[in-house]
């Protein structure tokens, strides 16, 4: 089974707080790497391909991701954290530290509702605590309410700003006393299990017969630019 290993250099930025997408985008438009979540891994069963583009950078305290998504169906039925956000219009970031078997899945629907856990696989998860989940920045271009907008002839657009706190990652990977690693493993996904057109896209390809995002062997590499670069 062939494994494609994408790599991307992640610029360092001075952004340790953002209250709006506009505020973050002003910085990210100048200093960020662009990634396309465009791998349709199971084309025969799930051929639909929304337009998914993200900007990524990191600062002293966060990994910043700004996703721009265009799809025919925008759906958000999960209105509380830890609900089934992957059934909605959902953007996902999975991350793993070097020499760790476990990874963290951070999944957020189009209105900024999330779930996250420390895992060894799809069926083994220890949820991130409520207190730690609240430390994640989640700002959507949409109102935080029940959402169901579908047009087969028109793409609907939404944006999602995520700030992944480095100290939370270090806590769950038990590396509190070490510097944050300069290289980490990750993948980015766009899904919508119960949208009108179910779909499962990724940044780094997932080469398996069955649909499954929970396979860290198919993560790519994020190389974090030094703060003094």
Q: Calculate the terminal CA-CA distance, rounded to whole Å.
A: 38 Å
Count of β-strands:
16
Structural class: mainly beta
Described by the principal axes of the CA atoms, the overall outline is: globular
Strand content: 35-45%
The largest pleated sheet is described as: 9 strands, mixed
Any idea what the CATH architecture is?
Sandwich
What is the level 1 CATH name? Mainly Beta
Enumerate the spans where pLDDT stays under 50 for 5 or more consecutive residues. none
CATH-assigned fold name: Immunoglobulin-like
Radius of gyration: 16 Å
How many domains? 1
Number of helices: 3
Question: SSE order in H/E notation?
Answer: EHEEEEEEEEEHEEEHEEE
Explain what the structure shows.
- With 229 residues, the protein is mostly beta strands.
- It has one domain: Sandwich (Immunoglobulin-like), CATH 2.60.40.1190.
- Helix content is 8%, strand content 41%.
- The chain contains three helices and 16 strands.
- The chain has helices spanning 21-28, 130-133, 166-172, and strands spanning 7-10, 33-36, 39-40, 51-58, 62-71, 73-76, 90-96, 103-109, 114-121, 124-127, 137-140, 147-150, 156-165, 183-191, 200-202, 220-224.
- The strands form three sheets. Strands 1, 3, 7, 8, 9, 10, 14, 15 and 16 form a nine-stranded mixed β-sheet that branches.
- Strand 7 and strand 8 form a beta hairpin.
- The radius of gyration is 16 Å and the shape is globular.
- The termini are far apart.
């Amino acid at each position: 089974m062939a494994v494609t290993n994408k790599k991307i250099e992640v610029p360092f930025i001075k952004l340790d707080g953002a209250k709006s997408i506009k505020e973050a985008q002003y910085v990210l438009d100048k200093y960020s790497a662009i990634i396309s979540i465009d791998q349709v891994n199971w084309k025969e069963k799930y051929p639909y391909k929304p337009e998914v583009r993200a900007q990524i950078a990191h600062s002293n305290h966060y990994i910043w991701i700004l996703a721009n998504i265009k799809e025919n169906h925008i759906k958000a039925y999960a209105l509380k954290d830890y609900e089934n956000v992957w059934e909605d219009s959902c953007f996902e970031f999975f991350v793993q530290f070097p020499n760790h078997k476990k990874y963290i899945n951070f999944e957020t629907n189009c209105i900024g509702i999330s779930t996250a856990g420390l895992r060894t696989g799809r069926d083994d998860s220890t949820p991130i605590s409520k207190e730690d989940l609240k430390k994640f920045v989640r700002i959507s271009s949409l109102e935080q309410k029940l959402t169901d907008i579908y047009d087969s002839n028109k793409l609907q657009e939404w944006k999602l700003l995520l700030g992944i706190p480095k100290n939370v990652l270090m806590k769950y990977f038990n590396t509190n006393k070490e510097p944050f690693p300069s290289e980490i493993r990750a993948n980015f996904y766009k899904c919508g299990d119960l949208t009108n057109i179910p779909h499962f896209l990724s940044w780094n390809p997932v080469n398996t017969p069955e649909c499954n995002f929970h396979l860290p062997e198919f993560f790519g590499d994020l190389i974090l630019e030094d703060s003094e670069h």
